[in-house]
Specification:
Low-confidence stretches: none
Oligomer: single chain
Mean pLDDT: 94
Number of strands: 17
Number of helices: 18
Shape: globular
Distance between the termini: 34 Å
Length: 490
Amino acid sequence: MSDPSALFDEIDRIRAQLRIDAARQLEKWQPCRIDPDFAASAENLAAYLALRHYDLRAVQRDLMALGLSSLGRLESRVLPALDSVAAALAALAGRDRIVGPDEMEFFAGERELHGRSRDLFGEPAGDRLTSLLVTCPSTAAEDRSFMLGLAEKGVEAVRINCAHDDADKWARMIEHVHSAGERTGRRMRIFMDLAGPKVRTGAIAALRHDKHAEFDDLIAVTAPGELRRVGKKDAGFAVECSLPEAIEASRPGDRLSIDDGKLEAKIERVDEGFFVARVMRCDAEGYKFKPEKGLNFPDAELAIPALTAKDREDLRFVAAHADAIDFSFVQSADDVESLQDALEEVRPGDWRRISLVLKIETPRAVRNLPELIVRAAARQPAAVMIARGDLAIEMGFTRLAEMQEEILWIAEAARIPVIWATQVMENLVKTGAFSRGEMTDAAMAARAECVMLNKGPHLMKALGELTRLLGRMDAHMHKKTPQMRRLTSW
């Protein structure tokens, strides 16, 4: 049996050091000018980061053996949870009485997160706690019934991707959103996604082949307009990259991924204006290059501004119409500051009312996540989107499974909402057919405050299934905590 006295000493030592370490972290964040409404959340995040520098597994088992909290569910209440455990241990050990937190203080973080989620998405429809966000297709600008269908399905928010269409079409989509709200009595929030610095394939030249790239083939990737630099002696194919900085940042040994991982290669040689890479993986029938396909450079540090000239131009429309801005390719606190400064220019006075959603797409964004959150939430409502498509390519699919959990924990410690995004029920949305793996993935999404579905011909069917699934999962699980609802299967 665990010794309550020894365990109290260990927990007390951790509490004392935690306060010191958290205070140091908070001092680093002071330049962010943290708004009073976010101050308690920033303090809790600092405490969580400090706590997670400890390996608590042995302590957890000892606490469990005494019938106490294992501390495995303290993200939103770090110090209150530790203080509560210390008070119980002191009583068990016969030490001087410690007054732990009352119920209001203990669950204050949960209430803050709940309130911010409702402010961002509104009240969820039906029995579910998790909100729904749907990406609008281009046809939604002409098809008034699309938004009406979403409202009737209880969707809380729509996402307009500024990488597609133009301000005229966005305005028509928004008009349809408002019209659907008037007809159904359900207001859907409008999220607008800034395009960011997209890295895409451009012009293509077949130098030694005229069909598909295959395993072990050499391909050259060039800066825009530099295809002429590559000859048959260099590679079998040459393809332009829309972002010259990606060419400059690449080194031999770095990985290259094209078209959501359909082709993977390793860079062997870097020359002026291009590099040559060897194909390490593609489909058995080979890969056919096409323009406007995504390029990922997982090992390169692309230190480029997240806010492009196009984003700054689009921001004038976005700031006037959006409830929330999805910030693509954000990687540093400086990126956040640049967007907030630009937002203040185009909407002075009340720009802080617009929510900022941080799209986490790269390893650098993951490393900087706490600073990104604090810099954003210090001045306006903030949320995190786990953009699992690009993140999987950048970090690897195995690492993604672990990382999406850690992002959920960090955001909960900061008491801000999370949007679970990319390929949720994708097969069902596109083909109308169910997939066991996709249903399990969607069930796990219930731990986030919002789930995003992309466009597809069977979207409405998928929304119905997802609504039923989330309603059932919400009764069984809240974040990491199982809900001990009465079972009816046995």
